[in-house]
Design brief:
Blueprint: E1 5-8, H1 15-33, H2 40-50, H3 59-74, E2 77-87, E3 90-100, H4 103-106, H5 108-126, H6 130-134, H7 137-159, E4 165-177, E5 180-183
Parallel strand pairs: 1-2
Antiparallel strand pairs: 2-3, 3-4, 4-5
Length: about 190
C-alpha cells in the first residue's frame, strides 16, 4: 500500500498525530485486505459466506476453490489514494483496488493451454486419457469432481501470469475507537473487516 495524499477538513492534527493516524489506517487496511493474514479456515469461512453453494461441495473441491480465491487475492493490489479526515475519529479512505483480469484466462488460446495442462495432470493421476473419457459417460461422471479440482488448480496457477488488471476506487469510512481504526459498519463485506 502506498499513501498518495491527505485531505484534512477542519480537523486539527499535529504532524506527528497525522503520521500516526495515517500509519494506523494503512496498517488496518493491510491487515483487512491481505488474504495471507487469514488462516485457511478463515478464508474457507469467508468463501462459504459469499458462495453458500460451495458448502455442499466435497472437501477437496471446496479447498481447491478456496486456494483459487487465495491466489486471486494474493495477486490483487491495494493502494490508499487519499485519506480525508472528517473529524479526529472519522476518516474517508479512498482505496484503489486492482484485481487480476480473469478474462485473460477465458481467451481461447489460454483455455486451450489450461485444458492441455488439466488433461496431462488428469492422465498422470488416473491413467485415463481424455479420448477414453469423452467416449464413456459413466467414466466422465466418475471423474467429474477430479476434473473440476484439476481445472481450479491449474487456473489458480495461471492467475499469477495475468498481465492486466481491473481497477476500481472505493471510498470507505473508518472510525477510530481508542487507538484502533476500523471500517464502519463492516463496510468491507468480503473480508468482514
Amino acid at each position: 500500500l502506498r499513501l498518495f495524499s491527505n485531505s484534512i477538513s477542519n480537523v486539527k492534527f499535529s504532524e506527528k498525530e497525522l503520521k500516526a493516524n495515517n500509519a494506523e489506517i494503512e496498517n488496518r487496511v493491510k491487515t483487512v485486505f491481505d488474504i495471507n493474514s487469514y488462516s485457511q479456515e478463515e478464508v474457507k469461512s469467508i468463501v462459504w459466506r459469499e458462495y453458500p453453494r460451495l458448502t455442499s461441495s466435497s472437501g477437496e473441491e471446496a479447498d481447491v476453490f478456496v486456494n483459487y480465491i487465495r491466489s486471486l487475492f494474493t495477486s490483487t493490489k491495494y493502494e490508499i489514494k487519499r485519506i480525508n479526515y472528517t473529524d479526529s475519529n472519522t476518516a474517508k479512505v479512498t482505496l484503489a483496488v486492482s484485481i487480476p483480469n480473469l478474462d485473460e484466462l477465458s481467451a481461447d488460446a489460454k483455455q486451450a493451454e489450461i485444458e492441455k495442462k488439466v488433461e496431462k495432470k488428469f492422465t498422470e493421476k488416473t491413467g485415463v486419457t481424455y479420448d477414453t473419457l469423452e467416449n464413456d459417460s459413466n467414466l466422465l461422471k466418475k471423474y467429474e469432481s477430479l476434473l473440476v479440482t484439476l481445472y481450479m488448480e491449474v487456473s489458480s496457477e495461471e492467475i499469477k501470469n495475468i498481465k492486466t488488471y481491473n481497477k476500481e476506487e472505493t471510498v470507505y469510512t473508518m472510525k477510530k475507537s481508542g487507538n484502533v481504526w476500523n471500517f464502519e459498519n463492516n463496510a468491507v463485506n468480503f473480508f468482514g473487516g
